[in-house]
Amino acid sequence: MVWTSGWKLASAASENGCLGLIGAGSMKPDLLAEHIQKLRNYFRDNGINKPFGVNLPLIRGDINELVKTILKEEVRIVFSSAGNPKAFTNIFRENNIKWVHVVASVKHALKAQDAGCDAVVAEGFEAGGHNGIDEITTLCLVPQVSEALEIPLIAAGGIATGAQIAACMTLGAEGVQIGTRFAATIEASSSDAFKQKIVDANDTDTFLIMKKLNPVRLLKNKFALEVLEAESRGASADELKELLGRKREMKGIFEGDLVEGELEMGQSSGLVNEILPVKKVIKNLLNEYDSAIKNL
Amino acid sequence: MVWTSGWKLASAASENGCLGLIGAGSMKPDLLAEHIQKLRNYFRDNGINKPFGVNLPLIRGDINELVKTILKEEVRIVFSSAGNPKAFTNIFRENNIKWVHVVASVKHALKAQDAGCDAVVAEGFEAGGHNGIDEITTLCLVPQVSEALEIPLIAAGGIATGAQIAACMTLGAEGVQIGTRFAATIEASSSDAFKQKIVDANDTDTFLIMKKLNPVRLLKNKFALEVLEAESRGASADELKELLGRKREMKGIFEGDLVEGELEMGQSSGLVNEILPVKKVIKNLLNEYDSAIKNL
Fold first, then answer.
1. What pTM was computed for the model?
2. Residue ranges making up the domain that contains B165
3. pLDDT band at B296 (very low <50, low <70, confident <90, very high)
């Protein structure tokens, strides 16, 4: 949810009964502090008392600075991803932070549990943006992680409807994490052009590429199809790095460059048909969940 | 289910309350006729009156001979896959055959409906063996196809437990098609060595390769890793065809060559922990289904 989940989206999600997360992936430490403070100010000014969290990609070069920001701003809930959780056990445990790590295989789920995480997000191949290397789908990943783990399990990857939430609960999840559906909300900080692309996408419009660098699920636009072509002729990791260049995510998601930017979205984009306010999205999800269970 | 679903597996599935399918993918017309006759003899000798079907890959060079066999043997139910259904509308409709086509995208589901199929199987990326090119997972494919179609929908891909059946019904399916779980049964005609590999496989042990020819999900054995290596350096379709050679499926699945054979299985292999009789598999699926719904 880089360039998408700032304080506005996170606060709207929390205010309406979800746990909103500020996505630090696209933020320098100062900007992260600003978003946390703005969310807190908004809650204070409106008499809202709800939890929120921050997502931290552990492989960031400045991860120690980001963690310092988390501690200084007294954030109580961290979702970490993309890195080895073990190295952060002491700091998160000593500071009594509720800590959830995102994984894409049973092995990494067990590592997160061993590292002392309070819960795990198991994210399938259909998820948008950065993805695991093993390509395990949510339908197959969730029951296998559920069987292996003792700590609570949150399902992610491809979920944009209440019926899918019910399906994931059936598979053993105790909650779900939703990205793409919330990226196409009024409150998301992504560009309108990007949000509209989520709405327009159908079932076959995304793919997982960049497998030699760091697999990522993108909309098939001009840039992404160039990467595919390079991969098909056997381009090396270095060539792909060159092609990727810098700031593609910002260009695509935040600035709305639909041709040269990276447009990260999940396969669930085919299920998103309207840009909506967060409150309405959550209401729809709950109604769909109830109907799905009633129809079973 | 090539080299796996002969008359023994199909009859056991039908006898125990499922719709068993004889998989014609690995059969010449004469052998298909023999399997149909053996199933019918077994049913007659045991006073069983249950439906069964035949799966026909429409791209087979000798498809017209296979269809003639179906008609001559008076098969009432056909599941077709891998090809254009439109070309078969007349023959299946004129002969009053119940006809279901396997698809992997909304577009192909609508084409099957337009061709006059009675139902559609929507099969996700996690499925074993031959697979669609769009890599849509069962969790994302089923609700999108369900929304688009008027005819009944059967979910497939990655399903090996009753909880997963419940999940797929939640997503809008009216039934499920299960492969890998039944490939690891006593009655499957595949080799014991192959069945044991399904039992041993974990969540990360299969992958989808051969994307320049015809995508197929295989266990990562020596042969499959050689294909991956060739693909990674940009091997052409012709090079891959050369590497594939002939009869890899027979070698792997039927003869049990675990090194040089193609070992087709789905991601659900990680959920299969025992070779069981079909009757026991079906009993387990129903019990798991009931528990999953009760626990919701």
1. 0.97
2. 7-191+271-295
3. confident
